[in-house]
Inverse folding.
């Protein structure tokens, strides 16, 4: 009875839906703030609330067309499109998400999880605004699980893969041969080498991105990093994990 009452369009259901959207946005945004992401607590909360409000305004529009504005609608013949505001909300978050995704140093793309998180939060807000409680609450639990629990699992899984991408800073371009020899000594296969030039501590250094596949016998990422780091020409080496 309570759920059915809250599915109706009234003041109590509007307050509950806005509160549910606030909880959803805050719950997701809190975890992102803990990880110091570009979009944090307030951003996610406001986005979820805004999405919920867009649907609630649509429902209010429909309600008014059928009651107080019915006489005007009969004269003018206004047509109602319930999906218009929700569709524009999705479009708007698309532009916001595109601005968050950036290509950082060493060919790394950052912001994908944040952008998709914002898109998912908008969907939660739309669901909360329309009163689809049966979907919003389980979806909130699943999204929090994916963002907070699966993140370290994904990093650990990538470290166990035989494919590895390394960024190495060294003195001269000729040192690539020495680094490549160390890699092949570990029975690893080099797929690609992308040479860059950069500066570190005022000195001009060369850097390169090595895309490798480790052997089944020597599949330790840390062993490969240690072997390369021991070279006197190498200034730094680290694994790139997107």
């Amino acid at each position: 009875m309570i759920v059915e009452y809250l599915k109706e369009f009234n003041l109590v259901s509007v307050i509950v839906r806005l509160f549910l959207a606030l909880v959803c946005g805050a719950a997701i945004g809190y975890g992102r703030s803990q990880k110091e992401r570009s979009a944090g607590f307030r951003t996610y909360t406001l986005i979820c609330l805004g999405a919920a409000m867009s649907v609630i305004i649509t429902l209010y529009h429909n309600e008014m067309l059928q009651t107080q504005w019915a006489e005007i609608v009969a004269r003018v013949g206004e047509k109602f499109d319930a999906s218009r505001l929700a569709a524009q909300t999705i479009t708007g978050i698309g532009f916001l998400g595109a601005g968050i995704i950036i290509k950082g140093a060493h060919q790394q793309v950052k912001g994908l999880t944040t952008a998709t998180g914002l898109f998912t939060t908008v969907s939660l807000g739309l669901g909360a605004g329309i009163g689809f409680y049966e979907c919003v609450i389980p979806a909130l639990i699943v999204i929090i699980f994916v963002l907070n629990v699966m993140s370290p699992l994904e990093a650990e899984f990538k470290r166990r893969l035989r494919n590895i991408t390394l960024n190495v800073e060294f003195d001269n371009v000729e040192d690539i041969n020495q680094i490549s020899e160390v890699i092949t000594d570990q029975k690893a296969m080099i797929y690609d080498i992308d040479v860059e030039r950069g500066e570190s501590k005022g000195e001009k250094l060369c850097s390169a991105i090595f895309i490798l596949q480790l052997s089944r016998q020597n599949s330790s990422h840390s062993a490969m990093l240690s072997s390369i780091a021991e070279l006197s020409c190498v200034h730094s080496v680290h694994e790139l994990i997107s």
About this structure: Strands lie at 102-103, 109-110, 163-170, 189-200, 203-213, 234-239. The chain has a mean pLDDT of 83. The longest helix spans residues 133-160.
